[in-house]
């Protein structure tokens, strides 16, 4: 139950952040929408700002969901491209580019927001499994370690999100990723 309540708060908050904006969303809005008490909120989070650190959890849940929906018969490279498109489309549909801009920049200047870069995240383990499989079946290069390939991949993903944010969300992140990411990742193909 506790995990469900925490997830409910997180999902509600991010929905409101997208709809109303982070600055305009109050804790009372979250309480009302999630149908929880103030005490319940403060049991899990010290402040609204604490919810910003849950971005990696939301993204990891989406990666986990997508792993169960992988199209059959895709090469490892195509699986990575498909995954990138799906996650970037999800971000475009559910996350405000202004908030993502803030969170990405906070990764650089605030240690407390470093969860996105935690190599123990589901995201990194999932990408590593795909890369490892691609390497073993001869589809991906063997001149770079799997760990470095994952790093290269994640840098490419962040670059696309950064470009989208810097352009004020003025284009489709998913479609931009579908067009550009395969070109960026060509160096991983054998």
Draw up the topology in text.
Layout: H1 2-20, H2 27-34, H3 38-44, H4 55-67, H5 76-94, H6 97-109, H7 122-136, H8 146-166, H9 173-184
Helix pairs in contact: 1-2, 4-5, 5-7, 5-9, 6-8, 7-8, 8-9
Structure explained in plain terms:
The chain is an all-alpha fold. It has two domains: 1-47, Arc Repressor Mutant, subunit A (Orthogonal Bundle); 59-188, Tetracycline Repressor, domain 2, CATH 1.10.357. The protein is 67% helix and 0% strand. The chain is built from nine helices and no strands. It is elongated and about 55 Å long. The chain starts with a helix and ends in a 6-residue tail after the last helix.
Tags for this model:
190 residues, Arc Repressor Mutant, subunit A, Tetracycline Repressor, domain 2, elongated
């Amino acid at each position: 139950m506790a995990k469900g309540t925490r997830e409910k708060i997180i999902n509600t908050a991010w929905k409101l952040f997208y709809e109303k904006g982070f600055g305009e969303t109050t804790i009372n809005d979250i309480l009302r929408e999630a149908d929880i008490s103030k005490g319940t909120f403060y049991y899990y989070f010290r402040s609204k700002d604490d919810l910003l650190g849950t971005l990696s959890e939301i993204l990891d849940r989406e990666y986990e969901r997508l792993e169960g929906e992988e199209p059959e018969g895709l090469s490892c490279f195509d699986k990575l491209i498909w995954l990138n498109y799906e996650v970037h489309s999800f971000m475009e549909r559910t996350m405000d580019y202004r908030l993502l801009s803030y969170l990405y920049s906070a990764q650089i200047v605030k240690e407390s927001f470093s969860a996105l870069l935690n190599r123990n995240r589901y995201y990194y383990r999932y990408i590593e499994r795909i890369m490892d499989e691609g390497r073993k079946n001869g589809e991906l290069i063997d001149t770079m370690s799997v760990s470095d390939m994952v790093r290269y991949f994640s840098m490419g993903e962040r670059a696309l999100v950064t470009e989208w944010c810097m352009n004020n969300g003025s284009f489709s992140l998913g479609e931009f990723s579908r067009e550009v990411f395969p070109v960026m990742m060509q160096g991983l193909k054998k």
